[in-house]
Every structure is written in structure tokens, then in C-alpha cells.
Design a protein that fits this description.
This protein is of the alpha+beta class and 234 residues long. It is built from 2 helices and 13 strands. Strands 3, 4, 5, 7, 10, 11 and 13 form a 7-stranded antiparallel beta sheet that branches. A hairpin with a 3-residue loop joins strand 1 and strand 2. The longest helix has 26 residues. The protein is elongated and about 110 Å long. The chain starts with a helix and ends with a helix. 22% of the residues are buried.
Length: 234
């Protein structure tokens, strides 16, 4: 009886622990030449993901940083990991990242900036990776009540990874807003993130059996030509 009570109590505690847990939900979205796989429970501020062609994109609604009246720096950041698998007949050429949003600056000492990093490694050889910084295409320094657009990008060349079948892409995003006086306002928001692996078609290499058939065919052609020459001489 005592063992039964202990077992029941253990099951109850386990149920309580699991009820508050966040379960991993692996999702795969298919592109034209690649598949994107990620944990749907770990997208955080990036929000839901969708695919168009070979672009995986996010449209965040709460990825922002705000500083008011000399409060100093406000930093908002998040990171997402994505597995990208090439379809048969395709290899990786590059990975490009494009981001867009808007910002608002009012008062002296108001600043805003976008930063971060994209990191890629071959899943079959994870100890070797390559990185690129995410940088805005122009300074975020326009003042005024109207919101101003910003754009940022990063790109990594993978043309030397011809034999790679699957990569892991890590996207780290940083939004930075700061005010140094009162009254002042610095507001920055990310509204779009698009990840596009560019692929190259792979020329198939004939297998050994195919080579053998080709050689046999050439041999038969040679034999037939030789017979015709002999026949003409006769």
C-alpha cells in the first residue's frame, strides 16, 4: 500500500512538472530546392515563420526597443536556429539575410541602431563555421515625428561547400535605442526577417554501371565500323 501511494505521488509530481513545460515542436517547411527545419517553440520575438520560394521569412509584431527621456541604452535581442537541407540535385551557393523595420528619434541624444550576426556551419562537420555581421544599409539618424524605414543585411558565401547536404543557420538580432536627455525618445522596431539560401544545380556524375554501358556501346560501334570497312575493301 505504501508503495502504491509513493508511486501515485510520483506520478502527480511528474504531471505537475510537465504541465508547465514547453515542449519542442519541430516544424519543416518545404521550399523549391531546400527544406527549413526549426523548433516552433523557440522562435521567440521572431514570431511565426512562412516560406515563399526558397525564402524563409518572419513578420515580428513585438520585436522592438524603446528609450525615453534620458534613460540611456535599451537593448532587445533574440536568436533563432534553423536547419536547411538541400534537395537532391542541388548544392549551397550562398546564404543571404534581409531585414526591415522602422524607427523614430526625438530630442537631443536620441540614437537607434541595428546589429547582430549570422552564423553557418555544416551539420556533418559542426566544428567549422563561418559568420557575417548584420549591418544597416544606411545610418539610422533621421529626426522627426514621422517613422523612418531602415534595412539591414548579411551574406555568407558557401560556394566551396559543394558536398554539404545540410547546414545550421543561426540568426542573432540586436536592436539598440538610447536617449541622453529629457525630453527625448528613441524607438526601433523590426518588422521583417527573410533568410534566403541560394542554390546551384549539381551535374550528376554517372555511376560505374553507366560508364560500363557507355564503354560497351562504344565498343559495339567500333566493331560495326570495322566490319563496314572490311566489307568495303572486299
Amino acid at each position: 500500500m505504501k508503495r502504491v501511494k509513493t508511486l501515485v505521488a510520483g506520478i502527480f509530481l511528474l504531471g505537475q512538472a510537465l504541465s508547465g513545460a514547453t515542449f519542442a515542436a519541430s516544424v519543416t517547411l518545404a521550399g523549391n530546392t531546400i527544406d527549413f527545419t526549426f523548433d516552433d517553440a523557440l522562435l521567440g520575438l521572431f514570431g511565426p515563420a512562412a516560406v515563399s520560394g526558397d525564402t524563409l521569412y518572419f513578420t515580428p509584431v513585438d520585436f522592438k526597443a524603446t528609450s525615453l527621456n534620458g534613460a540611456g541604452f535599451a537593448l532587445t535581442n533574440d536568436t533563432v536556429n534553423i536547419k536547411v537541407t538541400a534537395h537532391d540535385g542541388w548544392s549551397f551557393d550562398s546564404v543571404d539575410l534581409a531585414e526591415r523595420g522602422d524607427y523614430l528619434l526625438l530630442g537631443l541624444g536620441s540614437t537607434a541602431d541595428v546589429a547582430g550576426q549570422m552564423r553557418v556551419f555544416d551539420i556533418a562537420s559542426p566544428l567549422t563555421d563561418t559568420t557575417a555581421s548584420i549591418a544597416s544599409l544606411s545610418p539610422l539618424n533621421l529626426m522627426g515625428v514621422s517613422a523612418h524605414n531602415w534595412a539591414a543585411e548579411a551574406s555568407i558565401n558557401l560556394s566551396m561547400w559543394e558536398s554539404t547536404r545540410a547546414i545550421n543557420v543561426t540568426v542573432e538580432n540586436l536592436l539598440l535605442a538610447s536617449t541622453g536627455a529629457s525630453p527625448s525618445l528613441a524607438f526601433l522596431e523590426k518588422k521583417f526577417v527573410g533568410l534566403t539560401p541560394f542554390m546551384a544545380a549539381v551535374t550528376p556524375v554517372p555511376e560505374a554501371e553507366t560508364y560500363a554501358m557507355m564503354l560497351a556501346g562504344l565498343g559495339l560501334v567500333g566493331v560495326a565500323a570495322a566490319r563496314r570497312r572490311i566489307a568495303l575493301k572486299q
